[in-house]
């Protein structure tokens, strides 16, 4: 089962999205659906189905109950993570016609967007099947929608990287450049990584520490610092393979466990299996959330 964000979060998100459509705020409902109020009798009832017009992987149906409210019964035909084909019913709704028409676009926007992310995530996961590499997302998400987009990533079978700046350490080249200047203008590769890693672990016991490396030498410095993972950024296929060999050989020589090795930078569906073939443990793909296409899903009245 793919756990969605908490129900209160989904409720608040749905309310905010409806308020945007109705010309108000989450606390002030606004002008309402002026078209339905003019053309649809107040007591009219309707039945409708969310229908797939292309193949994909589903995510987002738990939001529909909050979008349509108590006046509409929502009956899912699939679950998060299920694959579907063109023509498959995804959910049926029945109840107030005005409520269904009012929530139609908001509900579709959520399900189309989240299913698009889940579908793209599944494509990447399938592309590396059997290699031992796992697909991870990044923080390249829509502002204020990170938790729901990461939910969609999980529905597609991929994994979540850190939730934000607060729950894991990821030292990138810009961090080292600033620190190097602050230490009197030394080069970034002269910064004492081990000292900094030890300090952060004293301050935040148990926190996951990852360091970005853009060269094999940088990867070995990260290994020597005792990090949990090394982010191998834009090294290319040959560079990745050499970095994996070098880090793991050095770890064996020291009798130490090698950190997780993560590839990132310019990962595409066409290249991801070759990247996985270098022996990396993880591949982070920003495209899962920043470049996913909304799927073609319709709401059709029965």
How many separate structural domains?
2
DSSP, total strands: 12
Q: Over all CA atoms, what is the radius of gyration?
A: 24 Å
Shape: elongated
What distance lies between the first and last C-alpha atoms, to the nearest angstrom?
30 Å
**Largest sheet, spatial ordering of strands:** 6-11-10-9-8-7
Q: Strand pairing plus helix content: what structural class?
A: alpha/beta
Number of separate helices = 11
Mean pLDDT, as a whole number? 95
Q: Oligomer, anyone? A: single chain
Structure described in brief:
The protein is an alpha/beta fold and 302 residues long.
Describe this structure in words.
By secondary structure, the chain is of the alpha/beta class. It folds into two domains: about 5-125 and about 290-300, Quinolinate phosphoribosyl transferase, N-terminal domain (Aldehyde Oxidoreductase, domain 3, Alpha-Beta Complex); about 160-285, Aldolase class I (TIM Barrel, Alpha-Beta Barrel), CATH 3.20.20.70. About 40% of the residues lie in helices and about 20% in strands. The chain is built from eleven helices and twelve strands. The chain has helices at about 5-20, 35-40, 65-70, 95-125, 145-155, 175-180, 195-205, 215-225, 235-255, 270-275, 285-290; strands at about 45-50, 55, 70-75, 85, 90-95, 135, 170, 210-215, 230-235, 260-265, 280-285, 295-300. The chain has a six-stranded parallel β-sheet. The protein has a four-stranded antiparallel β-sheet with strand order 3-5-1-12. It has a two-stranded antiparallel sheet with strand order 2-4. Helix 10 links the parallel strand 10 and strand 11 (about 280-285). Helix 4 (about 95-125) packs across helix 5 (about 145-155). The relative contact order is 0.15.
